[in-house]
Amino acid sequence: MLRIDVFPTHQQNGIKFRRGRALPFGSTIVPEGINFSVFSRYATSCDLVLFNKKEKEPFAIIPFPKEFRIGNVFAMTVFDLDFEDIEYGYRVDGPYDPAEGHLYNKERILMDPYAKAAGGREIWGIEPDWNNPFQHRSRIFFDDFEWEGEKPLELEMEDLIIYELHVRSYTKHQTSKVKHPGTYAAIIEKIPYLKELGINCIELLPIYEFDEFENSKISKENGEKLMNYWGYSTVGFFAPKAGYAATGKFGMEVDELKNLIKELHKNGIEIILDVVFNHTAEGNEDGPYISFKGHDNKTYYLLTPEGHYYNFSGCGNTLNCNNPIVRNMILDCLRYWASEYHIDGFRFDLASILSRDQEGAPMANPPLLETLAFDPILGKCKLIAEAWDAGGLYQVGSFPSWGRWAEWNGKFRDDIRKFLKGDKRAVKKVIERIQGSPDLYGWENRGTTASINFITCHDGFTMMDLVSYNEKHNIANGEDNCDGTDDNESWNCGWEGPTDDPDINFLRKKQIKNAIILLLVSRGIPMILSGDEFGNTQFGNNNAYCQDNEISWLNWDLVKENNDLFSYFKNIIAFRKAYPVLRVTRFDSYHTDAGYPEISWHGTKAWNFNYDSLSYTVGVMFFGSAEKYGTEDDEFIYMAMNSHWKTHGFELPVLPGEKSWYVAVNTDMPSGEDFWPQGKEQKLKNQKKILVGSRSVIVLISKKNNN
């Protein structure tokens, strides 16, 4: 029996079509045809514009008959189209009244807001035809990837070791020695490296379709083209960046990305996407028409009473996230990536914008954030907020969570940096950060896993640059060194930039080792910037958003050159994984019945820390009972931290009679003696006191004397 919906009711120039289905939005392959559905509240008419791939002129323009409009949705099924060989867009007509927020222009061809793939930037960096008025073209993709039984991993938050990376930067340098540098496929070749390092979760900078040529220009400093390199300027929320795919020129970017995800999951590695729902690539009043502006400007963007764009993103416009239509689009988008791509979680850029109402004011219970927290399809996805925006709303520690949202803990970054460089008043804050920031997350049962701990990320200095530069060096960005933050809390160890001085270089590596042990021992979820583990540098540039060159690309020769750092990172990650007491999720678990608190603070005298002091020294002891954590024996970990430029003696807490202290980490020692692997730790000769060198950290563990 034939279905009635495969029979056309209309025809134009040999193209057959009929009334379509309003849901789902976007283009959907249906029996014998393709269903097109698009929303516009204030439009008076809409045309479907069809192209053969890469052809400048359309082969058909089909107006939606009035009866094909259902509410504010235009829906049409077109028959006998080869979905693999067409591109499409819309022409939408309606009022042009900027003061009322309407910018309709029927001469513009618009990309589908729900396009699952996009043409126009298939090969990274290939200059487009700027005379083509339709730069970003909607494409149709049939979701038929063979997952072979794979599914999201659903690792526990407290067990994550997050590794932030940029798809292109990670393997673009010739030293990466991969087949297709700078692509999704190339990351697969680096999976053995990630596993050796101990990474079980990667966080990718934006991979939604964006335009690398947005605001591009030639640098006056070196003649190189400056690009929209990081991609924090979305063109299409449902479409993966084709220019990141080795197969993008063949239209296979969807399958290539899915294959990467499948291989990561097979190897026990989750994937989190950095998503940008705070603004789009359409900019302000002078920006281009790409999609949303022409479809329904008043619905998609936050507008002033005069019709101008609110700019809480710092990028020209602000998405109207808590408008019900936009809220549903964001939800549809995340559900699509979670279900069709098996994504494990999302990090939301400038997420405080998602908490603003339609006039831009912060809300106590933002409906979008609540919806995402309780959505059934996203129920196992990690939700991570960058809990601030460019409009001055800073919500670290107060971001609405419903027990689901974690936050990039910017205060962890700042407080640990201050302690490392020897600020006097840093110790009290460091105590909070190492505990998992109970001052920020010790409310509403949030727990330590609300805190994504990091010291470096894509935005700012790398770890090596943090200990090599006092000032930013962003001249290459072409903005007279005015871009990027001046608030780096960095210290160059006595010399600005590279040096051959062995003492300075030893101190720099020691400071990096201090940083990573504090990061990995702290409760909360650690995040490492890719390349930090082998001393990657951006040559002092703390805002490399536009640099598609060796400033941003990771130099893999440094793995060998700084193998001591790589080995140290690898061992400290393994150390964290070995001790469950370092991964406690609750703040109310500090007290035990075994005679020792689960976490305790010490000065240079055991059990005697002055919280009002301006000391540069502090000790912390973790106690993990065998009964609670299922270990063979009770475990003690003691960490002595000295950020002073002088050596200090630390009196050690006394262990139960059958146990002794053994050295696991001493950052003041040369490579090979800075870390002792499990089972090879060195017993202290003096069990009562230990000397901690200047700007050093020592970690001790307990062992039975007969071990």
UniProtKB/TrEMBL annotation:
It comes from the Bacteria. Residues 164-576 form the Glycosyl hydrolase family 13 catalytic domain. Keywords: Glycosidase, Hydrolase. Pfam families: Alpha-amylase (PF00128), CBM_48 (PF02922). InterPro entries: GH, GH13_cat_dom, Glyco_hydro_13_N, Glyco_hydro_b, Glycogen_debranch_GlgX, Ig-like_fold, Ig_E-set. Gene3D superfamilies: Glycosidases, Golgi alpha-mannosidase II, Immunoglobulins. Belongs to the glycosyl hydrolase 13 family. This is Glycogen debranching enzyme GlgX. It comes from Psychrilyobacter piezotolerans.
